[in-house]
Amino acid sequence: MAKILLAALVIMLLALVLLGIRILLVKGGKFPSTHIEANKALRDKGIHCANRQMEDEARRKGLFDRIQEE
What global pTM score does this model have? Predict the structure, then answer.
């Protein structure tokens, strides 16, 4: 049981070190952004994150609101 836990710990530590190489060795290094808004191809297609879509939907006026304005 202890050998399995030790092996799992070693594998996890190795994975963390490999993920952090860019951050540790490159000056000003950081993980790439995985947010939808940071992806130019998705922005060009008009795809936004769910939070932004909800905000846009909340700002959009419905038929009842437009009739009330007139």
Answer: 0.41
